[in-house]
Amino acid sequence: MKIDRRRFLATSAALIGTLAAGRVSADDYPNHPIRFVVPFTPGAGTDRTARILAEKLGPMLGQPIIVENRGGASGSIGTDFVAKAAPDGYTWVIGTDPSFTINQHLRKMPYDALLDFVPVILITRVPLVLVANPKLQANSIQELVRMAKAQPGKLTISSSGNGTSGHLAAEVFMFATDTKLLHVPFKGQAEAVTDVLAGRIDLNFTAIADILSLARANKLKVLAIGAPQRFEGLPDVPTVAECGYPNFDVSAFHGLLMPAGTPASIVSRINGEVNRVLTTPEVKQTFENLGLFPVGGEPDRLTHLLKSDSDRWADVIRKANIRVE
To answer: Is the pTM of this model over 0.70?
Structure first.
């Protein structure tokens, strides 16, 4: 029988880590500060999510949770740091699409998103919305599709770069509506949205939190929600599915993970505490104000999402023939 060397080494490392970390009693955990790695720069949605949790969880656990930003390489640098950390429950990472379900299909990664981590909990779903410059002569998805079909490739849609969540969302939209938009990649989401504001670009898929104030000030037009359910903060905006494209969903996610081999007792403890945090009215309202949908549940829920989203984005990348340098 042929043995997958990488899987064997990963499993062996996880077992050794479990035996070593097994000396840590769940009753004694935690007994010193916890490092919560955000693999992106401060101020981003993942950073805000991590800091909300850290603020609430610290007092519950009796130890400070220190949020540490380790950005770079679309989330890969900070995520790899946690993959190689001791599996003792004292190093966490907040996972999202680029670092756990997209990047591995675009470039060689220094870690295995499915083998090198243990999922703890799915924190939130992050719906993307399709926004347009207010002067665009389309006030609905139906009108936009008619415009796009009348002039294939003329309407432009920006993203924060090739292979990013916004780019993949645009490709999914084009597949679903049988339209052709001109994709314009930028080096960051702020620049991508700025050009929509200025009228140099027509459209963009972005997280609700990043554009909510602009939408309410009528500086951006929100055409549709890319998630299965509407957003209470924009109650009059329909979902893409409601506009005639069933099962359309380009939601991203925020999840909490630890290095593979972390004792099950610690994973269970943190899963329970985060579930308690997510059900508090204050935290639920805070997340919803940011355009995030709290989820929670057992670790298996995040495990399933990582596998299903990875397969989904791999299929989109293949069909759209996306390449990155």
So the answer is: yes
